[in-house]
Amino acid sequence: MKLRQRKQYFRNMKRSDDSEREKRRKRRRLIQELGEQRTPYLSPADPGFQELWDSSYAGLALRQSSALPDGLHERVQSALRTLQRRGCLLRDLVRVRDRDVFTAVSRALVGQPGHTYRYLDTRLFTIPWHCEGEEGQKDEKDKPCCDSDLRDACKALWELNQFFCSDVKQQTNARGVKRSRSDTENSEDTPGEGMCEESVKDRLLEEKQEEEEEEEEDSGQGCSHSSPPSSALPPDVAGLVQFNITLINYMDTTAMTQLKEEPYYGMGKMAVGWHHDENLVPLSPVAVYSYSCPAEPKNEGATEKDGEGQSKEKQKQKQKETETEGEGTSKEELKKEEGEGSEKEEVQKEKACWRVGLKVAWDIHTPGLALPLQSGDCYYMTDDLNRTHQHCVLAGDTARFSSTHRVVQCCTGTLDYIQKRSSEALENLHTDPEKNTKSLKSLLPSTLQHIEDIHNEVEFEWLRQYWFQGRRFARFCSWWTKPMEQMEKDWKEMERMTQLLLAVVEDENTAQENRREMADILLNALTDRQQHRQTWRDRCQSSLAQTLPPEEAPVDRPYWSNEDPDMPLPFDLSEIINRVESLLWRM
Question: Residue 474: which CATH number?
């Protein structure tokens, strides 16, 4: 009998591989089309910059530092420095094209209690932000889950989040009114009253159809569940924007030794390459706060030295210009030379600060946009900009924090969701109180398949994701400790349920037709499980993982010896898989 090749692991891997191949093909095509040339890009000093912004990047909005309320900058910047000082910002060991790599950026996730954010086969777990009236700020002993420093830091980030929630809505409404007035002037058929619900749904459908073109598509591993597009109206249309997490990033160019050059426009060194933000609610905005840190002391000396050299050079240049003017050079020519020098100086000044680069996705004909960011500046990506465009972060001369506020998909990425899924699975487990024995309530194939899917999801999308990041969460926040302990107990009960299903499948008294279908479901689940466990073991024991300090090193958990009497099934499932395969061959 030929086993069905419908295993979810291989199906997801094939989809991921196809997507990666398609993206590589597109990149090669664009670079070949470019050849030795570069598509132009515009900065604020270039003519036509504002016109390009308005015509091709209308979803981008810049809010200068002065737009934020008094005192908020100081609190937010102090919070970011606190997270760094306390060791909360860490490089992630992520999965790219079937291999583990460290991110160049150090990160932490702060947000709604119980929320997670998944990218590049890595699930980050929130440090809850602390605010009045917000539940979930305490651990199981009713004690604060973080110390006072971290609580203050997270509260400051929550205050920034509250500002973004209201300000992004105001900016979007203001721009929408401006657009609708312009449309009314240019077309009698356009009502000019903003976007109707039907057009929103059309855009959501378009989002779903073009989902596979995402630059940073979530390459789900095995039993992971891709977040489906939301059927609800996007936050910037339905009402007040509700950012539920912020991803904190820290980048230090002095420590980032292998920065790549931006390949399409020649914009300079990239700290973060071209990408779309992933796993967000369709059409939801993204708000980013940028904080450039003072230069390190060792660099300040170099900067002063360079400044002295530049000053001497300017004196020489001025003296030379004076001599040239004495030789009869016209004032017009001198002004022209001064203008060219000023332009070059302006370009160098722009490249010294951090910038966000934007381009139309998979397009090398529309000029790119490079927007310099002063410390404390914010920018918003609204409408469908994150879907239709890609953005990158261009490195400046100093270190930089960013707080990137997002509306992440909640349908599969919250503690509440996975707890409900676990309860669904355990409902099929019956315990006889008198005999203290356990059995499965239902043997319907659809029910058994559902339970085994949940079993795999709990183990590989939550337990192993949590422990792969070592003990980093428990070091500075205890919020997740108790829920993960309970989740592991529930998972152990699911192991018991798989053992009970195996007993039913191997029972000769089971009806032949039902037995074959149950055996097939069991074999697929066990094969997936065995594959994933080996993958996670390999990742935990990889050479990169071994370079991490003990408190950050991946933990291969849950793990147990095959002879462990407390576990219903062995860790290594190969012998059981062989038994079920042999059983199917005999049927």
Answer: 1.20.58.1470
Whether 167 and 158 have beta carbons less than 8 Å apart is answered as no
Does 439 share its domain with 401? no
Q: Residue 7 domain-assigned? A: no
**216 within some domain:** no
**Structural domain harbouring 544:** 414-586
Q: Pinpoint the alpha helices (H) of 62-143.
A: 72-85
399 and 447 share one domain: no
Domain assignment present for residue 23? The answer is yes
In the prediction, which pLDDT does 334 show? 52
Give the distance from CA 437 to its chain's centroid.
Answer: 44
Same domain, 450 and 419: yes
Pairs from 211-217 (Cβ < 8 Å, separation ≥ 24): 212/19, 212/22, 213/22, 213/361, 213/362, 214/276, 214/278, 214/387, 215/23, 215/274, 215/275, 215/276, 215/361, 215/390, 216/119, 216/120, 216/275, 216/276, 216/277, 216/278, 217/16, 217/19, 217/278
Distances (CA, A) of 57 to 50, 52, 205, 213: 10, 7, 22, 19
Kindly state whether residue 337 falls inside one of the protein's structural domains: no
Strands 116-119 and 389-394: unpaired
Over residues 50-73, the mean pLDDT reads 96
- Are 463 and 491 in contact by the 8 Å Cβ rule? The answer is yes
Same domain, 398 and 425: no
Residue 86 shares a structural domain with residue 143: yes
Residues 6+ apart with CB under 8 A from 542: 100
- Give the number of domains in the chain: 2
Task: Give residue 180's pLDDT band: very low, low, confident or very high (50, 70, 90).
Answer: low
pLDDT at 360 over 70: yes
Which residue's structure tokens are 């074999």? 523
Threshold 0.85, pTM exceeds: no
CB-hemisphere CA count at 13 Å for 563?
Answer: 0
pLDDT at 198: 40
Instruction: Report the range of poorest mean pLDDT among 29-43, 55-69, 309-323, 425-439.
Output: 309-323
**Cβ–Cβ under 8 Å, residues 478 and 495:** no
Nearest to 552 by CA among 95, 79, 82, 108: 108
Bridge pairing between strands 355-360 and 368-372: antiparallel
Domain with 255 in it: what CATH number?
2.60.120.590
Name the nearest CA neighbour of 31 among 356, 262, 210.
Answer: 262
Please identify which residue in the block is written with the tokens 């306390």: 86
Residues 95 and 417 sit within 8 Å (Cβ to Cβ) = no
Distance set, CA 345 to CA 335, 397, 498 (Å): 15, 15, 69
Contact 203, 283 (CB under 8 A): yes
Q: Could you tell me if 581 and 443 lie in one domain?
A: yes
Residue 185: Cβ within 10 Å count: 10
Length of the chain: 587
SS3 content of the chain, % helix, strand, coil (to 5): 50, 15, 35
pLDDT at 514: 84
Question: Rounded CA gap, 55 and 52, in Å?
Answer: 5
DSSP category for residue 65: G
Same domain for 393 and 461, yes or no, is: no
**Within this chain, do residues 20 and 59 fall inside the same structural domain, yes or no?**
yes
Q: Which residues contact 488 (CB under 8 A, 6 or more apart)?
A: 463, 558
